[in-house]
Amino acid sequence: MFVLAAAGSAVGLGNIWKFPYMAGDGGGGAFVLLYITCIALLGLPVMMSEVLLGRRGRSSPINTMRALAREEGRSTLWGLLGVMGMLAGFLILSFYSVIAGWTLAYVVEAASGSFAGISTQGVGELFNRLVGDPWRLMFWHTLFMVLTVSVILRGVRRGLEAAVRLLMPGLFVLIVAMVVYAVIAGDFLDGLKFLFAPDFSKITPDVALKAMGQAFFTLSLGMGAIMMYGSYLPEDASIASTSVQVALTDTLIAILAGLAIFPIVFANGLEAGQGPGLIFITLPLAFGHMPGGTLFGLLFFILLVFAAWTSAISLIEPAVAWMVERFSFTRIRASLFCGLIAWAIGVGTVLSFNHWPRIRLLDGTAFEGKSFFDLLDYLTSNIMLPLGGILICLFAAWVMGESSRRTELRITHPAVYALWRFLARYVAPLGVVLIFLHVLGMV
Length: 443
Ligand code: PHE
Prior knowledge:
mainly alpha; Amino acid/polyamine transporter I; binds phenylalanine
């Protein structure tokens, strides 16, 4: 159950929508190299630490942190880590739902045959027509939020397992088939080179920050989602091997998505660094020209909606659980309340793609030219999640007593335990701090 829930949380738009466009923006190979390094050296130790805290605390992240801090005789201010995570969850869900809304809209486009024989120009027009219309975006954003809340209302466990069990293999098979199509019809070698031959001159502090942020985002780390799901993990299950499984699955799906997309990008002379619209422009082009593409495209976007759905649920579950514990809200009331807040913040993202493409207040700052969506994405992925990750590692590897963490992790192999401890104690926190300082120009 934990692996399914955690994989359902981790695999989502982050892998299929965000990873390709971030890789495209970040110059390809340089970004991918940093991203994989961040997954291995920061993501894995943070994930293990987060699961560890969740399993020991067994409640919402805020109360888990407070209880564990009390247990160690430390200040309950550690609960603030849960508060920051909850806030990050709201902010991420607010834009996540808008993008998932694009996916819903594309289910309808696919079903109505809009992709058949579409031209390069046609795909651009289709996408721009959608994002240019705030009312259409509002409609899909609202529908997705309603779908998310309607699952949360009933308690996450039911249904989630079955959904993920069907979804993961389905999505995997479809993506592999698209990679095969990319080999046949795309510039596969160019795509491969773009993703895996790093141009080291492209490694800048900014690209490093984005690769780190993407590693946290795609693994759902640093905000309590994995902590929440960690409480489902039975006492005798291995935290290390389940974490490795989740991280590997997630990374594999992202890389396959990249391999499906970039060959099509290059074969059609599209722009790799065009931003958040990348897959919505590239994939319909592929579907429009492959045999059985309409059905295939329909199935693909439906599965992507499901993948986004299981991630979205994990984004507000910590907040809902906390409200139920703290204020004795009914689950229904807490879910409606949280959904409404995230939905309202999402209106800012809806407008970012049409009426409000940049926030004027930011002129003259380092964030000049950023839209509301860009700002939320930057703030959550690149700052809040890594910061949450550092605190999680510090708590698990420094604050918690040696014997508590040893019994909780239950790693039988001493070298594996030592490796986790070293990564969580030094490498992950210092790595994040170093990247932060590097961006600020201080190192
Ligand atoms: N990991 C999810 C994805 O890749 C997004 C997410 C981030 C979910 C943070 C929960 C917490 O789509």
